[in-house]
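Side project, low priority. Logging it here so it doesn't get lost.
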Amino acid sequence: MRAFDDATRRNIAEACAAFARLPEITAPSALKRAAVVLALTESDDGGDTAFLLTRRASHLRAHRGQWALPGGRCDAGETPVEAALRELDEELALELSADAVLGLLDDYPTRSGYLITPVVVWAADSAVIRPNPDEVASVHRIALDTIERDDAFDFTAIPESSRRVIRFHHQMSLIHAPTAALIYQFREVLAGRHTRVTDLEQPVFAWR
């Protein structure tokens, strides 16, 4: 159990600071830059620390109805941190400053042509969360204890790739990469492990 308090914030910030990210891609790339947010807040039952996970609106053109971390494509001239904070405000009306950022995880290249930067933030006042119905069908608080269970993640194989497909078991759903891969790496960072996830595969339906 991780209480939602200043001690937990310090501990997670220290874990993120101790994590050595993979070097950023400096050469020109065809991948479009994007950012997502691991927004840490109070759990539904109060007291514990959780992160926010959304279900995407059913009318969206891409990845409709899927589980996702808040986030999206970086605008021109925008850093991943700026994009992550903007998207968090646009999707959930949660306006945070750069002071709320605890750290960054590894960039994850997707099959659909994006390079995603995960940004870990501390959302102290989550009472203001209001999902934007144009983008978000629902928002859920996932306690950190949930992702630290031994059976929270598993790995499977598909004939289309030699890479392992990661799956996060949440309630009665299977959540796949990139979301599952980023959550898995965050779980590993919390445990003090420098586990890479760029080699973890997405299911074929997410390749588009």
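Brief comment: The chain has a mean pLDDT of 91.
Revisit when time allows.
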